[in-house]
Amino acid sequence: MTDTTPPALRVDDLTVRYGERPALRSVSLRVARGEVVALAGPNGSGKSTLLRSVASRLVATEGSVRVAGETLDAMGPVERARRISWMPQEEPPGDDVSLRDYVEYGRYAHTSRWVPPSPSDRALVDWAVHEVDLDGLADRGVLELSGGERQRARLARTLAQDTPVMLLDEPTAHLDVGHQLDILERVRRFAVQRSRAVLLAVHDLNLAARYADRVIVLSHGRLRAEGSPDAVLSSELLAEVWGILAELRRDPVHGIPYLIPRLAPAESGTPRRDGRPFRVHVVAGGGSGVGLLRSIVDHGWTPSAGVLPLFDTDSEAVRELGVPAAEEVPFAPIGPEALRRMDELLEGADAVVVASFPVGPSNLANLEHLLPWARRRALLLVDPPQGAWDFTAGRASAIRAELLASGAERCADVPEAVRWLERRSTTTGAAAASARE
Fold first, then answer.
1. Per-residue pLDDT tens digits for 174-186
2. Which of 63, 135, 49 is nearest to 100 (CA)?
3. CB 339, CB 365: distance < 8 Å
4. Can you give the residue ranges of every domain in the chain?
5. Closest among 346, 329, 349, 353 to 415, alpha carbons compared
């Protein structure tokens, strides 16, 4: 049987213009009771404009807003305040009233500022203060509160207004990570337990995925995507709307999708003198290559890496940075397929850096495989880690000595390795250009 109950909030073809400039273009959405819907998008995408229009703080050029099937335009200000509450991003606190009195402002839609609050009003205010974890500050003046505490006070006032529809504009602004999670957890519980429709604007897509039933993405005032976090969140969407590269992963415990964003590798670093990108292959393991790989990316050079064990810290870093790598199953000897991939990456490299990492039987082939390359590529060995590092009965130490005898150089640490690469990046291209001439 079809449910004919109107949604708690319905927005149809809403358009808003600032002068001649359209800030919102024919946006439609629905929010049901007990549902949390997140508005996401870059700065200037129209999130705040949409919320302010729905809250009647801005006059829409076109379109309509309905609450439980009734048009908002047909309601007076008091009736609208009983249907929709709005929490702005920023708001001057005004007089230095107590936090409890400030939260009590949310009850004016239901009573009057000239009538003393009833016991039920006071109980609701106390509950709202408790919900945002500010019980101990209830008698303190709002001007004494920190930015994060004022943000939570604004949310408490919105909760105290006790409306079927709640509009929250960046409710986690000014809050530390712990309070961000705590506040959104409470908002979600409030929406479900009290059957409230919540439309909130957030910058953090991962928070949206964790706490929202649906995500609506705005871009340049238009609705770009809508659906469950599973359906909406993607690396492609983040690249198209935010211009950021990201890897989509999934929380293994809750199954919630989340994105690991990163900027595209810089294109303006120091290239070879012949104009080609300077390419660096990094041999690492156990996290020894993370700082080196990041420095290579920061300089605008083109890195590759391996052979790395899957799920190793360095393996996670190459995924985050988008670095091509040769990889192998953890704790297994390096196989021929991984070594063939390593050869492909070495073939395209101008320089090779061996990071400071412990060597055991499973990764000894990383060093052995460099022997025929020692005279074909500029090769730098970062000094081994302090303490025990050679767990191959001396074989790793012997290979390092052989590589140095074949022309490899050595350095003490990553900063010295980066300086070596800076020198190589300017001389490699000059040599290549001379060879062509």
1. 777 788 888 898 8
2. 135
3. yes
4. 9-262, 279-436
5. 353
